[in-house]
C-alpha cells in the first residue's frame, strides 16, 4: 500500500513539474508579480521526460491496482475497508488531475484576460515596427503574458509574440511610445530582450 502511495505521489509531482513552466506565468499575472513569470522556464527542456515518467508511474500504479489479488484461503472475517487514498477512485482522480496538468500548456492562454484596445493613430507615418528577440518564453502561456503586458501600454498598435520563434513583433505609434519603454515592459515579465531589429 505504501508503494501505491509513493507511485501516486511521484505521478502527481512529475505531472505538475511538466507544466510548471507554463503555470508560473499565469500565477504571476494573477498575483500581480510579473517578474516571476520565467522562474521555472529552465524546466521546459525536461518536459518530455516528466511526461514520460508521469505516464510510466501512473501506468504502473494502475497495473498494481487492477492486477488480480491472490486469494488467501482463511476463515478470517477481518476484511478491512481500504482507506480512500488506496482506492481506485482516488487513483482515477489523480490520473485525471495529471492529464489536466500535462495538457495545461495547450489551453493556458484561455485564462488570460482578453484586452481589447481602441487604437487611434493620427499619422500612419508614425507607425513603427520592431522585432524583439526574447529569451525565456517556452509556451503559449508565455506569449500571452508578454502580449498582456504590451497591451497595457499606450501607443501599441499590434503585438505578436511567439515562443517558437523566441520573438515579439510589435507595431507602435512612435509619437506615443518608444522602443526603450516597450523593451522595459517585455523585461518586466521576467523574460529578457536579447536583441531588437527595426523593420
Which features does this protein show?
199 residues, alpha+beta, Alpha-Beta Plaits, 2 domains, four-stranded antiparallel sheet, 4 strands, elongated
Would you kindly provide a brief summary of this structure?
The chain is α+β, with helices and mostly antiparallel strands and 199 residues long. 45% of the residues lie in helices and 15% in strands.
Explained architecture:
Helix 1 (2-31) runs antiparallel to helix 2, helix 1 (2-31) runs parallel beside helix 3 and helix 2 (47-66) packs antiparallel against helix 3 (88-107). Helices cover 45% and strands 15% of the residues. It is elongated and about 85 Å long. It has two domains: 2-110; 124-198, Alpha-Beta Plaits (2-Layer Sandwich). The protein is built from five helices and four strands; from the N terminus they run H-H-H-E-H-E-E-H-E. Strands 2-3-1-4 form a four-stranded antiparallel beta sheet. The N and C termini lie far apart (63 Å). The model has no long low-confidence stretch (mean pLDDT 77). The protein is of the alpha+beta class.
Proportion of residues in β-strands = 15-25%
Principal-axes shape call: elongated
Q: Helical residue percent?
A: 40-55%
Alpha-beta content class:
alpha+beta
- What would the average pLDDT be, to the nearest integer? 77
Total count of helical runs of at least 4 residues: 5
Radius of gyration: 24 Å
Strand order of the largest sheet: 2-3-1-4
Count up the domains. 2
